[in-house]
């Protein structure tokens, strides 16, 4: 069973625990600038929205990489960057339509979410449940239920 990160922006408080956990998991330091997940602050509305790689099925970053530094992890389905293979050309950063592949100046390589080998630190650290790691087949279930409620989800007349 494939799993994926599910983000519910309505639950995000902007605490940045996900960013801190991600940077610590990957670099051993609490440095949000090194995080592979970002919390965007929409000042005009006051909303906070966590955002990271969605692990696209047809991953443009993977197909664009000229040295095949991005591969699919068979266990998690994550598109993973091999730092030893990456040459830092940034073609993947350009090809990603969501802007979730980032160039790291200090290493000269790119980074993106790799789902922490199936135990995402961001989901573990999120105190409100805004980030969860769930069965990939059910990521839209909450949206469908909310839409049904908006439409007046009523018991059927039988």
TrEMBL record:
SUPFAM superfamilies xrefs: 4Fe-4S ferredoxins
Superkingdom assignment: Bacteria
Keyword Ribonucleoprotein: no
Coiled coil start-end: none
Residues of the 4Fe-4S ferredoxin-type domain: 3-32, 44-75, 77-106, 111-136
GO molecular-function terms, A-Z: 4 iron, 4 sulfur cluster binding; metal ion binding
CDD domains tied to this protein: DMSOR_beta_like
UniProt entry keywords in alphabetical sequence: 4Fe-4S, Electron transport, Iron, Iron-sulfur, Metal-binding, Transport
Protein name in the entry: 4Fe-4S dicluster domain-containing protein
Upper lineage: Bacteria, Pseudomonadati, Pseudomonadota, Betaproteobacteria, Burkholderiales
């Amino acid at each position: 069973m494939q799993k994926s990160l599910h983000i519910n922006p309505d639950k995000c408080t902007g605490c940045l625990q996900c960013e801190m956990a991600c940077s610590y998991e990957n670099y051993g330091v609490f440095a949000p600038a090194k995080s592979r997940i970002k919390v965007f602050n929409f000042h005009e509305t006051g909303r906070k929205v966590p955002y990271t790689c969605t692990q696209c099925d047809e991953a443009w970053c993977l197909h664009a990489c000229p040295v095949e530094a991005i591969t699919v992890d068979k266990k998690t389905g994550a598109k993973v960057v091999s730092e030893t293979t990456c040459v830092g050309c940034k073609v993947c950063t350009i090809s990603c339509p969501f802007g979730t592949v980032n160039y790291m100046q200090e290493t000269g390589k790119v980074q993106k979410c790799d789902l922490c080998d199936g135990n995402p630190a961001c989901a573990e650290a999120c105190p409100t449940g805004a980030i969860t790691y769930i069965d990939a087949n059910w990521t839209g279930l909450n949206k469908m239920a909310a839409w049904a409620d908006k439409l007046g989800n009523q018991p059927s007349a039988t």
